[in-house]
Design brief:
It comes from Acidisoma silvae. This protein is α/β, with parallel strands linked by helices. 19% of the residues lie in helices and 20% in strands.
């Protein structure tokens, strides 16, 4: 099966990181990047005949693209597949591509593009389920999660998560058992 994407221009932003996992043959990958390649608003994996998909909303994208997964995306779309869905969409509270999330608060440019929130709302509008999984953001970036949460709830969406951290943020799936139960996310 073929992959498709919005092309990333040459000499683009590198998110760093070394982990990239090729997609298996039964999975079609797509992604939407900014023209500069610094931001990724959407990532898709499809493998079935229907439009039923799960939307996972993380902290920020790293190395996954239309051709390869990173460990987090692999774990998430495998969960969606086990749930009987035919697709997976990934968005992020911050859409800047960086593998070291501890540096997000020190960037000298915005960690969020203008296209990010509209993309999240568009993906959420047709998702079967929406899973919040961004973990704990630096306090200077927390307002971005509040903006995403408010916009989703104002559009009538229910958010699920794989548990909550002590600060109330939704847990990151990479650090949980693959069979962790989905529960309603409430702040």
């Amino acid at each position: 099966m073929a992959s498709s994407t919005t092309l990333i221009p040459k000499a683009v932003h590198s998110p760093g990181g070394k982990t990239s996992i090729p997609l298996p043959g039964h999975v079609i990958g797509r992604a939407k990047f900014s023209k500069c390649g610094r931001y990724r608003q959407e990532l898709w994996r499809t493998w079935g005949e229907t439009d039923r998909y799960a939307l996972f909303i993380g902290m920020n994208p790293s190395t996954a693209s239309h051709l390869v997964d990173d460990p987090t995306c692999l774990r998430e779309w495998k969960r969606a597949e086990r749930m009987g869905l035919c697709g997976y969409a990934k968005a992020n509270v911050l859409d800047v591509r960086i593998t070291d999330s501890k540096t997000l608060h020190r960037l000298d440019y915005s960690p969020v593009s203008k296209a990010n929130l509209p993309a999240i709302l568009r993906l959420a509008s047709k998702a079967e389920i929406i899973v919040a999984c961004w973990g704990r953001l630096h306090s200077s970036l927390a307002h971005y999660t509040e903006g995403v949460e408010t916009a989703l709830r104002n559009n009538g969406h229910t958010l699920l998560c794989l548990g909550q951290n002590a600060d109330g943020s939704p847990k990151h799936p990479l650090y949980l058992r693959a069979d962790a139960e989905l529960v309603q996310y409430s702040r």
